[in-house]
Amino acid sequence: MTGLDELVDTADSPHQGASACQDCGVYISQIQNTSLPLTIESNTDCSSDVINPIPMMPMIRTDIASLPTEILLHIFKLYYLHYSDAFPKGTVKDLQCWPILGVCSRWRQIVIGTPYFWQRLWTHWHPEIITLFEVRSKSYPLTIQRSSSGGFLLEFPSCDSEGNAVAARLIAAHSSRIRTLRLEWMDWYPETHETKYEFMRRCLADATFPELTQVLLRSVNHYMAMRSMKLNAPKLEVLTLRNLVLDSTSYPHLANLTHLTHIASDLTVQDIVSLLEACPQLESCDIRTRTLETPLLLPEQPHRVPLRALEYINISGLYWPSLARLLDRLEICQTANINLEIEPGERHDPHPLDVFRRIITPLISSYDSLEISGRGIKLIRSTERGSLNFEPDNSKYSVFAHFSCRQYISASVTQHC
């Protein structure tokens, strides 16, 4: 019997833990250098699986059996989170909390009857395990997760090698109660069949998620931004996109979005502005792109996008003229923390100092203190919240970028003063 079969058997067997007593009051611990006597409790009926591995351990009766169910649930949740939140995720490690089911019948019934322990599942798990989670989570919110490796790279037997079928079935069956959706995929042979990107795009476009609040969508091997991804989730609050760009028809569903992470190559100023304009409640924004060619800047638009709730924004990878254009289009409150990761100016413009002055001059009047460190240069407000931080691009040009950045800031500050 494999380890997976044992887990399924443990979770399914109606008699599992029958040898353990309802009064599971024996706690075994190692006690050294104490005067406590070695006491062997009689008639404990404790499972031999607990006692036999450590034959000469002191046995101390505790009150754990008399704890209220609410306290036991709190303990079980801590134990569960210890495994489910550790790396790597999506492996058999996520099921390590299942030995609780074999301690005694009371513990087993508490875990089985509590949907909290059955709300997070991975698409590459064994079908029987997935079914257990679907049933025992009842009507409570679900978290559906899919690894781009399908479990293979995580040393776990994958039952969803293509990655499409299980994810599509779960989305179709439970779209009304999915609260968190984390889908990653990788196209190995996109020329031979419908790509996973095309399949997942169609799958998500056909679904409506009335309770969905957190989404991560990642196309692993697409280094160019794949566009036209659709998502119908009116309660969405947290969105992470990697190598993907949302279709504009999804923008009306972003009215409640508070946290955005968007990582994709060749994002244009208009891509970013249109997306942020759809997010009036945005509090945290992380935009990272990589532009290979000098972008064609369209004529400037007269209106600016207000970001009144914004507390933090990071922008990296834009050419300096594009960065200047983007900052011109955004109305960022003075209390926000702004982080700009920049590359050497000479790669973007023959007159980088002029461009840099255009970036910093409209912002600098809001700050009264300057901090210079080996990592970056920060302008701060000494009496209120809000900062403007410049960091060098994390690449082989970073040393030069930091030097030129410091040089340009110094010149801009001097000119402003």
From TrEMBL:
Pfam families on file: F-box-like
InterPro entries the UniProt entry points to: F-box_dom, LRR_dom_sf
Domain F-box: 64-122
Coiled-coil segments: none
Lineage top rank: taxon: Eukaryota
Protein name in UniProt: F-box domain-containing protein
